[in-house]
Amino acid sequence: MVNVVSVGEFDLDGEALHAATDTYLDFKSADEDQRGRTRDILDSGHSWLNQRDLTADTVSQYTSELREGTGDDHPILSGEDFDDLEAKVADDAGSFVEDLVALFEDESPLEDRIERFRTNQGIDLTVISALLTTSDPDQYVLYDEEGFETLIRYFTGLHSPDLGDLSVGRRYDLYRNYCSTIQMDVLSEKLVDATLQDAQEFVRTVTHSAECRYNLILRYFFRHTRQLEEFEEETSVFLDEIRMLPQAFLRDQLEAYEGRQKIAKIRYDVLDAILDDESVDIDKIAARENVNHEKNIMNSWDDYKILAQIYYNYAKDRVEAYIEDLLDYLRNEIDADQLSTHYVTYQGATNIPNTRSWAVLYPSVLGDHKSAYQLYIYFYPNEIEYGIDNGSDVPRKEYDDESFESEDEISIQNVVEAYRERLDTFWRWNEELIEEPDSAEYDELSWFESVEKHLQRKKQIVFHGPPGTGKTYGALNFAKWWIDRGLDEQDHFDDAVEGRLRIVTFHPTFSYEDFIEGITAKTRDGDLVYEPEAGVFKEMAEDAVEAYEDADSKADAPRYILIIDEVNRGNIPKIFGETITLIENDKRLGELNEMRDELPHSEDRLVVPPNLYIIGTMNTADRSIALVDAAIRRRFRFRHFPPNCEVLYDELGFDGEQDVKTKASVEEGEDLGALSILALSAINERIRDSGNLGKGKQVGHSYLIGGTTDERLVESWKNEILPLLDEYYFGDMERLKEHIFDGGGENLFNWKEQRIADFDSDALRAALSELVDEDGGVE
């Protein structure tokens, strides 16, 4: 339900706040010991001030009282904060007391008092807020910068402050007003005698406690989805709800739909009637617009879908923030940050509003979410479901899912545990999709022969470079090319590739048992028995040994190639175990220092033949080569894969670099493909020059491969390139804005909301034009 909570000129969303309140109250009792300590410390400082006068002689007692009560493990103030306070007192107690008394008692506006004290004493806002709160816990709160920023991001309504534009004093005063409003208009409904300190604890808990924060998000989606279903059933109720949205928002929507046709025109007429306080007959409005078009524009639309977009636009930023943060949290909790994310909000995958939303995690190596098995969470009316699902382009597999069918069941930890329990299955299913590469054909690239020489000498190599530079693509094509070169006329290429080429992906749960040998349980004659089971490397080694020993010429023995994608994602010493020595060139079968290791489960003696080769791929955005285990660095050659925008010239239909520059010019219509190539080069130049990023965190050219239409290019920038930049800058939007976009980039990012904007091809064209000068460099 629409419920706007006003905070002066700004506002908060009541629906989200009430979901947060119910979640917070579940956590309140669990956090009572910490809350009690906070109250005791504040009360102790307040009591001291009530019983004594602050003077140059007593002020050190006051700071000591606070320090003693706080201890070393409480988040109010750190030991360093107290050291600074005591240093100020020791340096000039008289001046400090004078400024402190003025901070507490002066009749000038609070923000002015704070600015004056901060300027005179050089003390930061967190410490100032603690001093103020001990002076009067009923009027002041402990300041929480991170909590305030999250509060705005998660609960803002139509109008929210830009904290970066506010003075320190104004920032604190506004935070206090937010807490006061939450105390009186939200908490007091369910918490008897709610205090200002309760409101501050509410902000701290729902923004800092991961369990509370993500339970809140799940609860919000549970309620919001159920509400949308009710609106779908009762359109008249939905219309009444939209009438309750802020007038300023409705006017903004009216302006956005002005001058448009079809469904957008119907929404415009609905909004126009609402703002004029007239009755709304959607069927009549739709029929009036329909006659202007040859085809029936209402084929995929009904009253709910027309109205839902207006309603969703009000919550859009908040819903997207919830889903993005939820996916990041789940990915981190299962230690799988290499997974990509995809979600569909209530706006629907085809921009036709729906009553449900969903989000998934999937391995990026498989392309998109449709081509992979996914860890998913679906928000249905009256149910949240989660587990493993298949993308639409992969075979269906059955696995038990789990769900919450009531708010009382909601627990983010249950989702995390469900993902962890299914993680091995998730990786195994996805690995099955890439274990048998398409052997129909391959592309021959200019560097194949140099890699061939490296492998003949060292037997293993790692392709390393930024994401999107064609490392896996190159490894797969080289492997097919090299196998093809070693075939006799009677050998069948497809059969050879299928039998001699394997691909695995390392990840945090990939183990020695998966790679070398493990134990599996089997039923035999009704009894449960445990037997050794070969991993992928042992299987390949045994097959390669047999082929090597059967070969007429050992030098021409059939080549077996194992590609290890994301080699740095696994615990390499643990995965290889004692076999790490066996892959060295001189330790292989038939060599001078041949070695065989007895395996722990089967007691087989493993040996690696000379005709088994390993190609690893490594994303340097995740880990520098310098950090790779020394045992691997010593046994592998390394080949760097930098971005290569020249590859894109032919791919996107240009005749060389000059043609790209010409087509990117204003005179030639600012071709979006040409601008994308030049802008990507410009961005990478800045990244290389950055002391914090460097060449390992450039953006690869492959993100633009296939970008033969404006729509595909917009998708690539919006869903791949810009999220990667955001990740590189650790979400520090201000640094990203200044370093890459020279303080611009408003067409691509909503800097105020700290998210990627919902831009179209025209907006992308304008933004990329700002990055590129006539010579294809950075403006």
The biggest sheet, with number of strands, parallel, antiparallel or mixed sense and barrel status, is: 5 strands, antiparallel
Structural class: alpha/beta
The average pLDDT score comes to 86
Identify the overall geometry: globular
The total tally of domains equals 4
Radius of gyration, taken over Cα atoms and rounded to an integer in Å: 31 Å
Terminus-to-terminus distance? 47 Å
Q: How many beta-strand segments? A: 18
Number of helices: 30
Q: Strand share of the residues?
A: 5-15%
Low-confidence runs (pLDDT<50, min 5 residues)? none
- The strand line-up of the biggest sheet is 3-4-5-6-7
Helical content class? 40-55%
What would you say this structure looks like, in words?
The chain is built from 30 helices and 18 strands. The longest helix is centred in the middle third of the chain and has 31 residues, at 303-333. The protein has four domains: 4-209, no CATH class; 210-426, no CATH class; 448-640, Rossmann fold (3-Layer(aba) Sandwich), CATH 3.40.50.300; 646-771, no CATH class. The chain is 50% helix and 12% strand. The radius of gyration is 31 Å and the shape is globular. Strand 13 and strand 14 (605-606) form a beta hairpin. Strands 3-4-5-6-7 form a five-stranded antiparallel beta sheet. The protein is α/β, with parallel strands linked by helices and 779 residues long.
